[in-house]
Amino acid sequence: MVAGLEEGVSSSSHVGPVPFKDLAVVHDEEDGQDMFSPLEDDQHAGIISALPQGNQFMGLRQYQGVWMHHRTVSAAIKFQRRFTPRPSGGGGDVLLATPPKCGTTWVKALSFATMARAAYPPSGGDHPLLRLNPHECVPSMEGLFGAGREAQLEVLPSPRLMHTHMHHALLPPSLAHNPDCKIVYVCREPKDMMVSLWHFTKAIVTTAGRTYPFSDTLQWTCEGKSPYGPFWDHLLGYWRASKATPERVLFLKYEEMLADQVGTIRELARFLGVPFTAAEEAAGLPLDIAKLCSIDTMRSLDANKTGKSGQFFKFPNESFFRKGVVGDWVNHMTPEMARDVDAIVEEKLRGSGLTFTIQIEFRRSWTLHTNQLSKIAVKKETFVI
């Protein structure tokens, strides 16, 4: 460790996190099974069967205004009813929240590396992110509660670092309105989100011999019936919470994070109560974290080339790493498609103060120089999506 760093970090009461996979209880015959009573499962099945049904292709049901996979609905109910927060005296909780395909993998890596830098220097050759997928370091609430393994949260040191795709309105009140919990939210320009969601889903469903055109993702998202949709309700819930309690909810935009990676890491550290010391800044730790979490680094690792991650649904590790650039939608959408999406988003967000200025800049450039913009977007330094 660089001289002077240890003293600066150790002066904080900060302890965690450590990789979740290294601490999780291993179940043998019970692996993957639900630990809750058959009666409760029957009750959930009755609730789910009565819910409005979305497109059958994705198995979606509408629960409390949100479209989710039918298995995720059961996980959401358990999460709402059974989550127990950790008080500030015990270190509190940190919840990362994202809509699907809006920087989940990246913010997990950045947050873990930033919070755990005292125990795991980002330039160290034995850093957990060099051997584990970020999803193995930071657990999913839907995954744990869906599999009946939320007791594993108790083994995490404080502050616990967790993730969810749930809307703010669906979070347990003990978490959403808890002064001892901090929430980091990352959103993404809607058109790029749609493209990323399509590629991710297509890679999975095509293995089952199905076809999945981009127009389907476009239509379902615009109708509000994509996974964890409506997308704009997801955005607005956390946006309004960040305005009401900025000390507890940090609202980040993927595009702005890419534009200033080191600045984002500093902001994360400050918000989470572990700001970089002068010695850490002099040693270049924020930049080291940015390099460690870059898509070029993470995509090259064996841990992210093979295997699967997830406590509930299992996804190929390689599926979490594609381009991670801004503006890839120009390669998938016609001008008419882009205008339609922009109009819907503008209408849904009107009056909230939340905007995506990047879409205006890109649309102007794209109209005049489509090919040039594509080249510029690909040449940008890329990070995990």
From TrEMBL:
UniProtKB keywords: Transferase
Protein name: Sulfotransferase
Transmembrane domains' residue ranges: none
Keyword Transferase in annotation: yes
Similarity-based family: Belongs to the sulfotransferase 1 family.
A molecular function (GO) term: sulfotransferase activity
Enzyme Commission code: 2.8.2.-
Domain Sulfotransferase as annotated: residue spans: 93-353
Top-rank EC class of the record's enzyme: transferase
InterPro entries in alphabetical order: P-loop_NTPase (IPR027417), Sulfotransferase_dom (IPR000863)
